[in-house]
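Bit of a strange request maybe. I'm writing a small parser for structure token strings and I need a real example to test against, not something I typed by hand. Could someone generate the tokens for this chain?
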Amino acid sequence: MSKKQYIGLFGLGTVGSGLFHVLETGKTVNAEIKKVCVKDPDKKRTIEYEMITYLPDEILDDSNINLIVELINDSDAAFDIVKQALLKDKNVVTGNKKMLAFHLPELLNISNKNNKTLLYEASACGSIPIIRNLEEYYDNDLLTSITGILNGSSNYILTKIFQDNLSYTEALKHAQDLGFAESDPISDVEGFDSLYKLIIITLHSMGAYLHPKKAFNYGISKICREDLKYAREKRAKFKLVGQVIKLDHETFTLFVIPRLVYPPEYLYNVDYEYNGIIIEGACYDKQFMSGKGAGAYPTGSAVLSDITALMHDYRYEFKKKKFFTPLTYSDNISLEIYLRYDSNRDFQLFNFESVSETYCSSGLNYVIGFIRLSELSKMKDSLSQLNIFMASTGKFNYQ
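Reply from user aminoacidic:
Good idea to test on real output. This should exercise your parser:
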């Protein structure tokens, strides 16, 4: 077992405070928080701690601190902290999924060159140990897809909409009042948070990295009562789902989009702030994991798991990347989608390959049909300006 971990903690918000609690609960963990760096000296906090600094270098330059735990919201500042820590010969644990999604290749390169460890289990699915499982159990070439509800905030909102018949606006306020959604909820509800997590998961499941700007994501903010009526008539729910699929031995695809799910499906009963992950392989069919995807203690527990792993000299091996032929990203697939629209002008922007169902009335217009993911990707930046709602049926074609 490695020597004691003397921790320099960046951030004392929800997750940082949760880490204090789980460290105190996990009595067998040989780790101690030596100093905490925060940004706002006037912010009220649930933890009173005497060793607080407002200068990052007071931690980064402290030779007695051998582990940096980064738990702040600012992804740019987090990148600077993590990069400097690795360059200064300190191991790092982080939970910042946006920072990792944009900078993983550079950070992993630095950690390898300096023989330092970077762990980030808390960045993917809260309390679900998805990264460690992908690294250790699914480290073969049999894995074919990962499908999941990756964002607890959007899932809570959709649950309140379906179970309590709330409007999107009302459900969002509920989530914000409970601390499940930020005052600016765009990252959660538009699928960016799910996308960042999916990119991290893809590196460990497929051995491939894709920059966030090259991937497609679409969220739930345009959902309305007409969409709920359609789903209920089909005895289904809408869930915000991320999916990475191995298309063949050379290519993969990934995307985040609302999806119609039905009672027999695993994700149908994943409600409120919970996440759910389906891992599918060629010989083991489907494996399902579920757990809280957000919150102080679930995420703090994931951070603690990484701290404990470091004490046993654990590090990611990236076997898929090292020992298998790297996969190439492709958006050359067709997704079957439900598209609800008000204006024919908006509808005509969508280049459907085929249409299986249409419905037009004074209150609801929708179409079910196949459309290329590449076409949706071209429209990504303009979709939020249209008065539409779109969801996958779960069907796709690849030729």
